[in-house]
Q: What sequence folds into this?
C-alpha cells in the first residue's frame, strides 16, 4: 500500500511536470489549427515553421542574443569575481549586496529603467541595446554562481603554482580556472536560459524590427497562437533535452573517475585518465561547433539586403499580414520591409507617443486612430500616391467618418463585426431561424453553454444593444441597467473568454459564443457545424487601419506599402491567411473555397460582407474620455465582483 | 652534515598584520645543506618566516639575502626555492604525473626528461606506479609525498616545508619524518621546516624555537633539550618540571625548601631562579634515601615507562621511571646535580617584555 502511494505520488508529479509539454508536442502534429480537436497527423506546422522567415529570424535573435550575452556576462562576471575575491571581507560583502539587488529587482523595473536610460543618452533602441540589457541582467547570475567556487578554492593552489615557477597569468589559467569551471559553466548556462526566457526586459529595450521568440509569440496573441509555435516549442524542447543528456553524460563520465570511497572499492587498481575521454571530447566539440555555427549563421539580423529605395518600418499587430508579402513587396517596389509587432493598441500607443522607435507605417484600430488624430500623432496620407485606394469597399466608408472624418489619416486594412457563433448541433434550429436577438444569450435553455467576451467594451456592447442603448453610452442610468443585465446572465455563462472562445467552440464545449466575424471562417475550417449570425439589434463594427505616424522617415515607402496592401495579390493573400474581411472591391468576385458551402463568391458570404440593413444598425467603438473610462471600469468591477 | 657556508640570511625582518607584530627584527642564518626546523606554537611567526622566504609575503623591513644576492623583492615564481604547503595544495584536476610535471613543463624541459623525473621522484617518495592516479583518490600521507615529489623534481636549492605533517596521524607522521631525513640526505639540499611540536627534534640539524615573533633559542636538538635557555623553551620541548627556586650559593639550589646540589655557578647568592628538571632524571628511592620525601598520587603506564606524579614538599613532581610505584607509595626523590638546569627568571627576556608591552598597551587603550 505504502509503495503504491509512493508510486502514485511520483506519477502525479511527473504527470504535472510533463503533461503540458506532452500535450503541446502532440498538438504540434495536429492537422487542424484547433487546440481542442484532433484531426489527423501532419507535419505541416513544421514545414510552415521552417518557411516562416520571421519566426526563424526571431529564433536566431533569441539564441544569438542569449549566446553573446552569456559569453560576455560570463567573462565580465568571472573578472569581477577575481577582483572581489581579492577584497577585504567587508568590501566584498558590500559588493555582493550590490550584486544581489538587481537579481531581486522586478524585471519590469529593470526593463523600463534601461529603456529610459538608453533614450536619455540618445541611444536608439536596436539589437545592441537588447544585447546590452541582457548582458546587464546576466552578470549578477554569473557572479552568484562563480563567487562561491572562488571561496571554496584550495587557497594555496595558486601560490603552489607560483612556487613552481608559474607566472600569475599561467597559474590563473592552469590552476585556478579549472577549479572554477563548474561554477563558470553553471553561470553561463543560467545566463543563457535567463536570456532565452526573458520577455519583459527585451520588450522594453528592443528597437524596430528586432524580435525574439518571446516578443514575437506575445505579439501574435491578438489573432491566436498558430500551431507553428507548438512545432517550434517542440523542437526547442527536444534540442534542450539533447543538450542536457549530453552534458549529463559528460559529467557522469567525470564522476566515474573519482571513486572517493577507496576503502569500499578495495584494492582494485584504477587507471585514471585526466580530463574527458576521447569520445566525450568529440561530443563536446561537436556541440560547440554547432552552437558557434548557429551563432554565425544568425548573427545580427539587421536587414541583410537593403532595397534600392531604403527600408520601410512597419509596426503591426502580430501575424496580421501574410508573412510572404514582405518579400513580394521588396521584389515589386525595391523597398526592404522591417516588420515589428505588438499585441494591443494600448501597447503600440506609448511607443508612438514617446517616439521610442521610428516607424513609417502602423496598423491601429478605429478608436485608437481617433485618439491619435486628436493628439496630433499622425500624418495625412497622400492618397494621390495610392492609386489602389479606388478599390476601398464602399460600405466601410460611413463607419470611417466616425473616427477619421473626411478620411485623411487612415486606410482600412481589415474590418469585421461582432456576432454570435453557434453550433448547429447543439442549439434548437428554430431559435436561429429568421431574426436572432442578443437575448438568446440570456435564454435559460442554454445555461452553462454560453461564452461571453471577457473584456469591458465588448461585453457591455452586447447588453447595451439588447437594451437598445448605444454601445458608447455615457448615461449612468443606462450603465446601471447594462451591468444588471450582465449580472443576471452570469449563472448561464460557461466561460468569459477572449482568444480561446474560438477553440472552445471548435471543441464543442459550448453552444454559442460572442465572437468577431474574422474568427468564424477560421473556426469553420475545423468544425463544420459552426454558424454565425449578427443579432437584429445591431452590433459593433470594427476597423483596423494603416496610418502614418509623425515619426515617419520614409513617407514614399509608407505610401507604397499601403498601395501594395490594396493590390489584388496582397488582398487575396491576406484574406486567405487571416480569413478576416478585407475591404477591397477586387475581392468581391473572388471565389473562396468555403469549408461548408464549397466554392463561394466572397461578396455572397454574409460573414465577410454583411447586408446594408444590418450595417445600418451598427456603430463603432468610441473613445469615452477619462471620466467615461472610469465609469465603465467601475461598473465592470462591480459586475466582476458579483 | 650541514656545511659551514651560509646560504640564506634573513636580516632585521619585521612584519605586522593590521598592527599586530608577527616578526620583530628577526635575524636568521641558514647554512647550505642544513635541516633547520622552526619550532613554536601557532602564531609564533614561523609560517610568516617561511612565506617571506618563499616570496609570498613581503616583509615590512629587512632583507632576505640568498648566496649574497638580495631576493627580498623577487617574485615567488623566480626564486630557487620550492615550498611544500601545509595542506599539500595539489592541483585537484590533474593526475599525479601532471602535478609533478607542472614545474618542469613551465621551465620547458623535454618530455623524456620529464617522464624520467616523474619516475625518479615517485620512486624517491615510495609511490612508484602512481602516475595516472587522481590526486583526490590518494590518502593524506600519499598526497603529502606527491607534494614533496612535485617540489623536488625542480631541483630547488632549498625546500621549504610548512607543517607538512600537521594533518597526518601519529604513525604516518613518524614514518614521514624518517622519509624526510632520507630525502634530505639523498638530495643534499637545504630543508627549512616548520612544526608546532617537539617531535621535529629527531630530524633536525638545527632547531629554532620561536615565540611571539622572537627567537627564543637556536641550537642543536641536544642543546635545546638539555640546556633550555628559558622556561618557555623548557616547557615547549618535552615534559619538564619547572620550579621556582633560590640559588643559595654556587652549586646549591633550594627547591621546595630542600637544598639540591647542582653544577651551575655565577648566579650570586640567594637569587630567585627557574629550575628545570626533566621527569626521567628524577631518581625514585625508598623513603629517607633521597633529598625530599613524598607520596605517589598518580601512576599511568605510557609505553616504555610509567609516568607518576609525586606530591613532595608542597609541589607536584612529574617523574618517569621504568619501575612502577603504586599510588600511595611513600618515596624519596633525588636528582643528579648535572641534571638540574638553572635559568634566570625571565624579566629581561624578550618574551616577558612583549607580554609587558601588551599589558601596557591594553591599559593605554582603556584610557
A:
Amino acid at each position: 500500500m505504502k509503495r503504491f502511494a509512493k508510486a502514485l505520488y511520483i506519477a502525479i508529479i511527473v504527470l504535472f511536470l510533463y503533461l503540458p509539454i506532452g500535450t503541446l508536442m502532440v498538438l504540434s502534429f495536429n492537422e487542424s489549427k484547433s487546440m481542442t480537436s484532433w484531426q489527423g497527423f501532419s507535419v505541416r506546422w513544421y514545414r510552415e515553421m521552417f518557411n516562416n522567415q520571421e519566426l526563424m529570424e526571431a529564433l536566431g535573435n533569441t539564441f544569438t542574443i542569449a549566446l553573446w550575452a552569456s559569453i560576455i556576462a560570463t567573462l565580465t562576471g568571472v573578472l569581477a569575481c577575481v577582483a572581489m575575491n581579492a577584497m577585504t571581507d567587508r568590501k566584498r560583502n558590500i559588493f555582493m549586496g550590490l550584486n544581489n539587488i538587481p537579481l531581486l529587482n522586478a524585471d519590469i523595473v529593470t526593463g523600463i529603467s534601461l529603456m529610459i536610460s538608453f533614450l536619455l543618452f540618445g541611444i536608439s533602441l536596436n539589437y545592441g541595446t537588447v544585447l546590452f540589457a541582457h548582458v546587464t541582467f546576466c552578470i549578477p547570475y554569473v557572479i552568484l554562481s562563480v563567487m562561491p567556487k572562488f571561496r571554496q578554492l584550495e587557497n594555496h593552489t595558486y601560490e603552489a603554482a607560483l612556487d613552481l615557477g608559474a607566472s600569475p597569468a599561467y597559474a590563473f589559467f592552469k590552476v585556478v580556472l579549472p577549479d572554477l569551471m563548474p561554477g563558470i559553466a553553471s553561470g553561463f548556462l543560467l545566463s543563457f536560459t535567463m536570456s532565452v526566457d526573458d520577455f519583459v526586459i527585451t520588450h522594453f529595450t528592443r528597437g524596430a524590427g528586432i524580435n525574439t521568440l518571446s516578443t514575437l509569440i506575445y505579439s501574435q496573441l491578438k489573432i491566436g497562437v498558430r500551431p507553428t509555435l507548438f512545432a517550434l516549442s517542440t523542437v526547442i524542447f527536444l534540442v534542450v533535452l539533447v543538450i542536457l543528456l549530453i552534458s549529463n553524460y559528460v559529467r557522469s563520465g567525470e564522476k566515474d573517475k573519482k571513486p572517493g570511497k577507496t576503502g569500499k572499492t578495495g584494492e582494485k587498481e584504477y587507471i585514471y585518465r585526466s580530463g574527458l575521454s576521447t569520445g566525450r571530447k568529440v561530443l563536446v566539440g561537436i556541440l560547440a561547433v554547432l552552437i558557434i555555427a548557429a551563432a554565425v549563421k544568425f548573427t545580427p539580423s539587421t536587414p541583410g539586403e537593403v532595397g534600392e529605395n531604403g527600408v520601410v518600418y512597419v509596426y503591426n499587430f502580430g501575424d496580421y499580414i501574410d508573412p510572404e508579402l514582405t518579400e513580394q513587396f521588396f521584389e515589386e517596389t525595391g523597398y526592404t520591409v522591417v516588420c515589428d509587432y505588438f499585441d494591443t493598441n494600448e501597447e503600440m500607443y506609448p511607443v508612438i507617443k514617446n517616439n521610442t522607435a521610428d516607424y513609417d507605417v502602423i496598423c491601429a484600430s478605429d478608436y485608437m486612430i481617433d485618439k491619435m488624430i486628436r493628439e496630433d500623432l499622425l500624418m495625412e496620407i497622400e492618397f494621390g500616391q495610392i492609386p489602389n485606394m479606388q478599390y476601398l469597399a464602399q460600405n466601410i466608408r460611413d463607419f470611417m467618418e466616425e473616427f477619421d472624418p473626411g478620411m485623411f489619416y487612415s486606410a482600412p486594412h481589415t474590418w469585421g463585426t461582432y456576432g454570435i457563433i453557434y453550433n448547429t448541433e447543439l442549439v434548437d434550429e428554430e431559435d436561429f431561424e429568421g431574426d436572432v436577438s442578443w437575448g438568446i444569450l440570456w435564454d435559460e435553455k442554454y445555461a452553462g453553454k454560453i461564452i461571453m467576451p471577457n473584456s469591458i467594451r465588448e461585453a457591455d456592447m452586447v447588453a447595451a444593444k439588447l437594451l437598445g442603448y448605444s454601445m458608447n453610452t455615457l448615461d449612468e442610468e443606462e450603465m446601471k441597467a447594462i451591468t444588471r443585465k450582465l449580472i443576471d446572465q452570469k449563472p448561464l455563462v460557461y466561460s468569459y473568454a477572449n482568444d480561446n472562445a474560438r477553440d472552445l467552440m471548435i471543441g464543442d464545449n459550448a453552444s454559442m459564443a460572442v465572437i468577431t466575424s474574422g474568427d468564424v471562417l477560421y473556426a469553420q475550417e475545423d468544425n463544420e457545424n459552426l454558424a454565425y449570425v449578427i443579432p437584429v439589434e445591431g452590433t459593433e463594427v470594427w476597423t483596423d487601419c494603416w496610418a502614418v505616424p509623425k515619426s515617419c522617415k520614409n513617407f514614399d515607402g509608407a505610401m507604397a506599402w499601403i498601395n501594395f496592401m490594396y493590390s489584388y495579390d496582397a488582398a487575396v493573400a491576406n484574406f486567405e491567411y487571416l480569413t478576416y474581411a478585407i475591404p477591397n472591391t477586387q475581392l468581391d468576385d473572388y471565389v473562396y473555397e468555403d469549408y461548408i458551402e464549397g466554392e463561394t463568391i466572397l461578396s455572397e458570404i454574409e460573414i465577410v460582407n454583411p447586408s446594408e440593413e444590418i450595417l445600418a444598425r451598427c456603430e463603432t467603438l468610441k473613445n469615452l474620455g477619462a471620466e467615461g473610462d472610469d465609469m465603465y471600469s467601475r461598473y465592470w468591477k462591480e459586475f466582476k465582483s458579483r | 652534515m650541514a656545511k659551514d657556508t651560509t646560504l640564506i640570511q634573513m636580516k632585521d625582518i619585521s612584519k605586522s598584520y593590521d598592527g599586530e607584530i608577527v616578526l620583530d627584527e628577526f635575524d636568521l642564518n641558514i647554512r647550505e645543506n642544513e635541516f633547520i626546523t622552526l619550532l613554536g606554537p601557532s602564531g609564533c611567526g614561523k609560517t610568516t618566516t617561511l612565506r617571506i622566504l618563499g616570496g609570498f609575503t613581503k616583509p615590512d623591513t629587512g632583507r632576505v639575502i640568498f648566496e649574497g644576492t638580495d631576493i627580498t623583492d623577487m617574485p615567488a615564481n623566480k626564486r630557487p626555492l620550492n615550498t611544500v604547503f601545509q595542506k599539500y595544495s595539489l592541483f585537484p584536476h590533474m593526475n599525479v604525473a601532471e602535478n609533478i610535471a607542472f614545474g618542469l613543463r613551465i621551465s620547458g624541459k623535454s618530455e623524456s626528461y620529464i617522464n624520467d623525473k616523474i619516475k625518479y621522484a615517485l620512486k624517491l617518495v615510495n609511490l612508484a606506479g602512481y602516475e595516472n592516479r587522481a590526486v583526490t583518490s590518494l590518502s593524506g600521507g600519499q598526497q603529502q609525498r606527491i607534494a614533496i615529489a612535485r617540489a623536488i623534481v625542480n631541483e630547488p636549492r632549498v625546500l621549504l616545508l610548512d607543517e607538512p605533517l600537521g594533518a597526518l596521524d601519529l604513525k604516518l607522521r613518524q614514518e614521514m619524518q624518517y622519509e624526510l631525513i632520507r630525502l634530505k640526505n639523498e638530495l643534499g639540499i637545504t630543508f627549512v621546516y616548520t612544526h608546532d611540536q617537539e617531535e621535529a627534534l629527531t630530524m633536525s640539524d638545527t632547531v629554532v624555537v620561536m615565540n611571539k615573533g622572537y627567537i627564543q633559542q637556536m641550537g642543536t636538538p641536544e642543546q635545546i633539550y638539555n640546556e633550555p635557555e628559558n622556561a618557555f623553551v623548557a616547557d615547549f620541548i618535552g615534559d619538564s618540571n619547572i620550579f621556582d627556586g633560590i640559588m643559595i650559593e654556587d652549586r646549591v639550589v633550594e627547591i621546595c625548601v630542600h637544598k639540591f646540589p647542582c653544577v651551575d655557578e655565577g648566579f650570586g647568592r640567594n637569587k630567585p631562579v627557574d629550575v628545570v628538571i626533566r621527569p626521567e632524571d628524577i631518581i625514585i628511592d625508598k623513603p629517607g634515601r633521597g633529598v625530599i620525601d613524598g607520596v605517589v598520587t598518580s601512576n599511568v603506564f605510557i609505553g616504555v615507562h610509567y609516568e607518576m606524579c609525586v606530591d613532595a614538599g608542597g609541589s607536584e613532581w612529574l617523574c618517569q621511571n621504568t619501575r612502577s610505584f603504586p599510588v600511595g607509595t611513600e618515596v624519596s626523590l633525588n636528582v643528579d646535580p648535572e641534571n638540574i638546569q638553572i635559568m634566570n627568571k625571565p624579566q629581561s627576556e624578550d618574551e616577558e617584555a612583549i607580554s609587558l608591552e601588551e599589558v601596557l598597551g591594553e591599559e593605554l587603550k582603556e584610557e
Observations:
- Confidence is low (pLDDT under 50) at residues 351-367 of chain B.
- The first strand of chain B starts at residue 6 and ends at 17.
